[in-house]
Amino acid sequence: MKRLSVVVVSVALAAGGLFALAPGETELEHNGWFRYTNTSTSFGVIDPDASRFELARGYLRLKHQWAPKFETKLTVDIHSSEKYAEGATVRLKEAYLNFKCTPEMGFTAGLQKHYWSLIYSWAYVNPFKALADAQKLVSSADYGLTYGGYLPAGWGEFQAGLYNGEGYKKVGGDVNLSPALVGNVRVTPIAGVKAGVGVRYNAEVTRSETSTDRNVLGIAPMVKFAFGPFSVEGEYLVWNFTNETTDTLGAVTSTDYAEGGFSVVPLLTLAKRRVEVHGRFDMWDYKMDGATVDSKSLMRYGGGVNYHFLRREKGKPGVALQLAWLRTQKNDDSEPVDELMAQFRFEWMTVIPPPFGG
Amino acid sequence: MKKFVAGIATLGLLFSVAVNAGEVLVKGSDTLLNLVQRMSEAFGEVEPDITVSVTGGGSGVGINALVNGEIDIADASRLIKSKEIYSARENGVNPTQIVIAIDGLSVIVNEANTVEQLTVEQIGAIYRGEIKKWSDVGGPNKPITLYGRQPSSGTFVFFRDEVVKGEYAIAMRQMNGNSQIVEAVKSDETGIGYVGVGYLREATGVLALGVKKGDGDYVSPLDREKVYAGLYPLTRPLNQYTNGSPKGEARTFIEFELSEEGQQIVEEEGFFPVTADYIESNAEALGE
Fold first, then answer.
1. Mean pLDDT across chain A, nearest whole number?
2. Are residues B187 and B265 in the same domain?
3. What is the ipTM of this complex?
């Protein structure tokens, strides 16, 4: 027979708390990924250019609560990059103002999440990129104005917005002049079931002086099931557009592109959420004027395990080791490409109180 | 590599099963902390085979732990938000509300203060920083020092939504718990704070203000009949959330909290027993 054991712990929190900032407070967060990637062909010849240590992510975030209804966020990514002689660079990832019209709905203006497909909620439990990112359809962040929030009684979330449409990495002449319209909704009709769809339309995307994509339409239904420690999340992406290319004589050639595919990620969480075992299966089909292009159609599969030495929570530091493998097999006769990844994630945050008062 | 992964997974399974047997994990609201601790002590005398572990941290902390499947019961002095329900459902968790007590959230001042009552509107203006001196509300010609909770606290959220109706003044001193607010106001003649009524039970050196809303009368949070009749403007339910209708040992504990003995403890701790409306909704949540 066990004796009664009552444990009373009053957790002393840092000024500011965990889930919302008080006016005047600033949240400072760092999020780093130290990664080793080994890329090989059928586990054979190792490509030295793609087998290396790197700091794949080095997010430094500042979120400031001006008032209960206003907050701003700035995220820069200080990471390894082979594009520069110094071997590293700084990239702007987020910079926006959020204005809440109600406690759980509001406008966001600036460089922000791109609310289409799983890319915006991809938490890198599987450390490889989400399908829309891997297929280079959209970027995870873009410049835009959105309205969104949470539906009453926990029914779901929604966003509607206008974006530049070319992601956060382009500047100058590459900036798209035809904005993209994005609508997204996800609902949880019952516990353990989430379903949603995102729709994105861009009338015109200029690729070069002689090449333009027209009527770029993306549709992204998703679903997630969760039963105790097991969950499975998947999405189906449709990406259609017409490319118009003008030759030197001024003649215009139109080509219809139809891309699409799905991604499924099963996940088993164990040991009080310290261990995650995950898998992944993707299919992608690429068609030009109705004919499949085997060199761009592919299948991906793999899996991995994550061990959380410290579980990342809002307001707590986190340290995790991720080990994963992903094989990409194109439909043509090329050898499959295998990526083995080992990654340490280290993340922390703190709240800086207002300089006056408090 | 394969052995390493298999080893971690096996250990994890064994560990996760072994720790929770016969244990109820409760986490969340600081306002509920003392009350639920008392409940668990009394429960231990009735059900010695069941261990109840109670931790604080704030309503938001407790709800987040429930959303992540880390605990059995989340204590919350505020209602769960849409965003939290959505996150919970996504994880296969169905937050279900049980009201275990009623609180008259009390606005307190130092016993040396001559102010005995305020309107909700005056209190809101004080906490927004618009009224800065006690003399503006009939008190001494002294500045007002604000004491409140941190944003992770359900009481912080409830008071902001129901009283402040805007932005807390930046000068408000954020305290970690109700007891700290009582102690701070007790030692500060210019102080004002807000705490769960249960924290006034043994408090000395502070006074609970009568509070009036609109055309109503001033009502003290210690006036049981008027709080029960819904005449005290800052009456609120004190909640526990579980994943679906409570089951097993967590259900046994909650049934004890709602029993005559449990509700007697509620009164002994200075809070008020559950009212008829909540008795009905509790029965529904328990599937009775």
1. 88
2. no
3. 0.86
